[in-house]
Amino acid sequence: MMGAERCGLVAIIGRPNVGKSTLLNHLLGQKISITSRKPQTTRHRILGVSTRDEVQTVYVDTPGLHRVEARAINRVMNRAARAAVRDVDVVLMVVERLQWVEEDEQVLQVLRAAAKPALLIINKIDQIDDKAALLPHIARLKDLYPFVAIVPVSALKGSNLAQLEGEVGGLLPEAPHLFPADQVTDRSERFLVAEIIREKLIRQLGEELPYANAVQIEEFSQQGGIIHISGLIIVEKPGQKAIVIGRGGERLKQVGVEARHDMERLLGSKVMLKLWVKVRSGWADDERALASLGYQDDG
Ligand code: GDP
Ligand code: MG
Q1: What are phi and psi of 150, to 5 degrees?
Q2: Does residue 158 line the site of ligand 1, with CB under 6 A?
Q3: CA-CA distance, 82 to 205, in Å (whole number)?
Q4: In this structure, which residues have their CB less than 5 angstroms from ion ligand 2?
């Protein structure tokens, strides 16, 4: 049954490791249109667009909250974090299992300041042994914020995501779709792939992350059943390069392992990922190295 078109911006927030990226990947699924094109209505970066019949959900990045992930969580109430959720239509706040910790409380402060319609998503229910404990837990969480609904899911196993999508769709305003239903461009995939590398760098490096780092995708090509990707990480100083690479190349390797994992999920294909670190200016310019990660390296 077709109704009026709905379309809106949705932010997924939550402390690190609760499963935001996993959830997003599953919500986007395979039939997604991904694009880096920005509608004029938002300052956000578009992470992905899911179009199902009359409902188009535009998942947007919350840069202020990314910073929160990387930096001291007690700065969560900064302006950037508030701005990040200010002009979205719906917020999905993700928590995990039966936990509610201080960092969750701080993420909630951001939501409270934004006062947006929100769903609380209890992720990783596949890891809850004592299912009977879920109901009293939900009852406690209900009092924290006027959540439109509290939805237990397993992002990893894909359970209950249809119900979640239904809840989200119901909260989106009636509006014409911003994107064609089936748009997938190579350029946007490059963009997302670069973002994945950046995210993993932030996670690995935290406070040590050299500011002004940039990621360029130098190669993005399909050969056989494998997508070959080369990512160039650009830093300002040789010392920063050493930090990104880590002792014995371990850090860059870890970034590569995690990034490739996400890329394979995003692209639905085996990925051969090469990462290089380059100093933007100076003598070290052409010195390249280090992590070359193929799909056969798994495990
Ligand atoms: P983010 O930091 O919030 O983006 O979290 P990620 O999506 O990167 O997930 C963090 C970890 O939790 C990863 O190892 C995921 O595989 C795992 N994870 C995410 N969702 C689930 C889930 O529903 N069940 C289980 N068991 N693990 C999950
Ligand atoms: Mg993530």
Answers
A1: -115, 120
A2: no
A3: 24
A4: 20-21
Residue 62 burial (10 A CB sphere; 0-12, 13-18, 19+): buried
Sign of the dihedral through C-alpha 30, 32, 35, 41: negative
2 CA distance to ligand 2 middle (Å): 34
Residues in the chain with pLDDT values less than 50: 1, 30-42, 67-77, 184-186, 212, 282-299
Predicted pLDDT of residue 249? 94
Distance CA 246, CA 184 (A): 35
* CA atoms within 13 Å, Cβ hemisphere of 288: 9
Contact 160, 151 (CB under 8 A): yes
* Distance from C-alpha of 40 to C-alpha of 261, rounded to nearest angstrom: 32
Q: Are 45 and 61 in contact (CB under 8 A)?
A: yes
3-state secondary structure of 156: coil
Strands 270-279 and 291-293: antiparallel
Tell me which DSSP letter residue 16 carries.
T
3-class secondary-structure state, position 170: helix
Query: What's phi and psi for 47, nearest 5 deg?
Result: -95, -35
Instruction: Classify 90 as helix, strand or coil.
Output: strand
Cβ of 159 closer than 6 Å to ligand 1, yes or no, is no
| pLDDT given at position 239 | 87
Angle among Cα 75, 102, 92 to the nearest 5 degrees reads 80
Distances (CA, A) of 220 to 29, 48, 172, 192, 216: 21, 19, 35, 12, 11
